[in-house]
Amino acid sequence: MSMSSQPDPAKLAASRAAVALVRDGMRLGLGTGSTASIMVEVLAERVKAEGLALRCAATSKATAELAGRLGLRVESLDEIGWLDLTIDGADEVDPDLNLIKGGGGAHLREKVVAQASDRMVVIADPGKVVDRLGAFHLPVEVIPFGLEATKVLVGRALERLELSGRPILLRQRDGRPFVTDEGNHILDLALEAIPDAPALARALSAIPGVVEHGLFLGICDLAIIGRPDGSVVELTREDEGDALADEEGALL
Ligand SMILES: O=C[C@H](O)[C@H](O)[C@H](O)COP(=O)(O)O
Asked: Quick one: which residues bind substrate (predicted)?
């Protein structure tokens, strides 16, 4: 494999298994992050080796740049219209394949792309698999206008859900507020655990300054968890509970 640095073997295993799902002629959504970047490299190699004709929509400027540089045909989501398959990473995956995403600040475009796909496949290493979402800070993309008021409203929403006092952190990069591809900021919610993810998702979506939160509920169809030895475990929503029980010792 001609990657610049040695890729994480678990992420590479998950990437290879996901890229094996790609068929000639597919319209693909490409995720963002370190795992998705490995997947893009694996995909580009397969496209080159097999001469596949694919149309790809990227979930971030960074992924568009990488995919284009590797020779993949990248178009806007509007040009392609609808996607057959999106492959993306995640920050947390729970037993119902609900996710936290947005550690890289790309969850808004990622959610738009995933929802515009017939199928969303998540690729991850075993460290991303959790019993319950929330240890990873939940990213919430907010518009710059009225940021302080939005923070107050987010705090009130957390209070109503008995999550009061949890830190609400404005994400920083190089000493300034982080700016997303859509020109917004990110609030990271240090929740520790999320007792009722659908209620939290509804409450956050009801705040006008919130553009999108990083909870992906009922969106992911398949999670491919790579292991450091190069093997993978595939988890689907229907059988995920059993698969986790069977594999628990080896997976976590
Ligand atoms: O905003 C970033 C995305 O949601 C990523 O897919 C997620 O943070 C996982 O990234 P990584 O594969 O680097 O852990």
From this structure: 32-35, 88-91, 101-104, 128
Write down the pTM of the prediction.
0.94
φ/ψ bin of 66: left (φ > 0), alpha (ψ from -120 to 50), beta (otherwise)? alpha
Looking at the annotation, which residues are catalytic? 110
ipTM higher than the 0.95 cut: yes
Are the beta carbons of 15 and 37 closer than 8 angstroms? no
Domains and CATH numbers, the chain: 9-129+218-251 (3.40.50.1360), 138-210 (3.30.70.260)
Pair 169, 194: CB distance under 8 Å: no
- What residues flank ligand 1, with Cβ below 6 Å? 31-36, 88-91, 101-107, 110
Burial grade of 183 (CB within 10 A; 0-12, 13-18, 19 or more): exposed
The predicted-structure confidence for 148-186, as pLDDT tens digits, reads as follows 999 999 999 999 999 999 999 999 999 999 999 999 999
